[in-house]
Amino acid sequence: MTELAWIDLALTSARPQAMGALLRYFRNLDLAEEAFQEACLRALKTWPEKGPPRDPAAWLIFVGRNSGIDQVRKRAKHQPLPPEEVLSDLEDTESDLADRLDGAHYRDDILRLLFVCCHPDLPATQQIALALRIVSGLSVKQIAKAFLVSEAAMEQRITRAKAKVGAAGIAFETPDAVARAERLGVVAAMLYLVFNEGYSAGAPDRADTPFCAEAIRLARLLLTLFPSESEIMGLTALLLLQHSRLDARFDAEGQIVLLDDQNRSLWDRALIDEALVLIDKAIRHRTPGAFQIQAAIAALHARATTAAEADWLQIDLLYQTLERLQPSPVVRLNRAVAVAKREGPEAALALVEPLAEKLSGYFYFHGLRGGLLKQLGRYREAHEAFDRAIALATTPAEAAHIRQHLDSMQREMAAAEK
Amino acid sequence: MLYAVLCYDSESEVSAWSKEMDDKVMADLGAVNQRYAEAGKLGPVARLMPTTAAVTVRKGATDDIVMDGPFAETKEQFLGFFVLEAETLDEAITFARELSAANPANGTYEIRPLQFFNPGVPIK
């Protein structure tokens, strides 16, 4: 590894912890970010000469804190009204650095850093962008590319999101058990969004989209901090299982390959094995949750050597449990896939049809409905459903996938006429 | 003499590696292994899963306590290891409980699933 590469890696891996601590000191995202940047610049200068510090995060916090304090004092001189609040907070933080670095705060620091990105007023895309910028340290350019917007537009979005978070105020007191559990739940949901943003990007973009790997890294980090949280085990397992299929999900032309048709030898066994262990660990707690159930469903697929051999009865039952926990038309739609496998297209269609109103704008609803109608030989209706799906597709790969369905239907119809 | 060579590193840094980099490191280590295996000198080689996949079995007052996560104390030393093929985590935990019962000392057993395992060549 080159010198620059290992420093870059050390900075990336220390970032959540260092940024979390600096946010606690300065109570201001911009100030924390500037202080961290400054500390990184000094690291690039001094580490090559002196070698890496024993604890890079502690080093960055110490250096960042000092440079941040200088900044605040400099600005205070140029402003008519010194930011009393900020400075008085700083007095406290100067007390005993050793005490602050003993590790007890890290957990809540990192959780808070993730949590501020999940402000409920921020739309999902802004939560994702903010977390990737602030916590992961991805460049605005990288984030903009994944969202298919210009760098300037993404810069503006992130600035606005930060302003909103700043105006809303951040809870800095150490959370109690209930508040901590709430934060964890919100952060877990956000990490799932980050993953999905990467997961749903089409094949041509996926190599440039580090979102999935980043979501997994942060989920593992969260689990290191909260080792007994079964839902975080579930989340991590779910992400690992979905990510394990990356190489099988697209063909050479970049078209989506459905689960049923994927070459299972391309699945990443190391990720699957890790997920299965996490599910085993989670089950021992006997506190089921939505992520654990979804991971269990994904695990049943991962354990089957072919799609037909998957335990569709178990999958159906798990979806029913998930529906009780988290009633949603999308969960019902997914359950319909399992029902189609077990009981055939008619039973599945009976589950799907009542969802028409709620899911009329949902690509997968029309795709699945079209597929079921096609199986039942109701080609004209299937055609209409597929047309709706194509109109709603958000990626070229989705649209191409439905066109494949239409093509195979044309062939079936032609064969039937003969 | 047989030697065990143990590998320590920052997990947060290793988990920030890209897949390409991870693959390259594994290939480079594999090349070193290969030379020693060809000389008939290299036994089993394993890479452990992340510590998030670990559970730890330690002696309690009445019964063993199973905790999530790796062994975190620093006053004990690493004394030995076992490689077990088990269908489930529970089976591995049962094995560790039996070891604990057979061992009069207060030792702790950390269970770490293997991510990569190469049994190597037979060594004396």
Which key features would you list for this structure?
heterodimer, A: 418 residues, mainly alpha, 21 helices, 73% helix, B: 124 residues, alpha+beta, three-stranded antiparallel beta sheet, two-stranded antiparallel sheet, 3 helices, 31% helix
Layout of SSEs?
The complex is a heterodimer of chains A (418) and B (124).
Chain A: H1 3-26, H2 29-50, H3 56-78, H4 84-93, H5 97-100, H6 106-116, H7 124-136, H8 140-146, H9 151-168, H10 177-199, H11 203-206, H12 211-225, H13 230-244, H14 269-283, H15 290-303, H16 312-325, H17 329-343, H18 345-352, H19 363-375, H20 379-392, H21 396-417
Helix pairs in contact in A: 1-2, 1-3, 1-6, 2-3, 6-10, 7-9, 7-10, 8-9, 10-12, 10-13, 12-13, 13-14, 13-15, 14-15, 15-16, 16-17, 17-18, 17-19, 18-19, 19-20, 20-21
Chain B: H1 11-14, H2 19-38, E1 45-48, E2 55-58, E3 65-68, H3 89-102, E4 109-111, E5 114-118
Antiparallel strand pairs in B: 1-5, 2-3, 2-4
Q: How many domains, in number, for the residues of chain B?
A: 2
Helix content of chain A: over 70%
| Helical segment count of chain A | 21
Strand content of chain B: 15-25%
Helix- and strand-based class of chain B? alpha+beta
Number of strands of chain A: 0
Helix fraction bin of chain B? 25-40%
Short characterization:
By secondary structure, chain A is mostly helical. Chain A has 21 helices and no strands. Chain A has helices at residues 3-26, 29-50, 56-78, 84-93, 97-100, 106-116, 124-136, 140-146, 151-168, 177-199, 203-206, 211-225, 230-244, 269-283, 290-303, 312-325, 329-343, 345-352, 363-375, 379-392, 396-417.
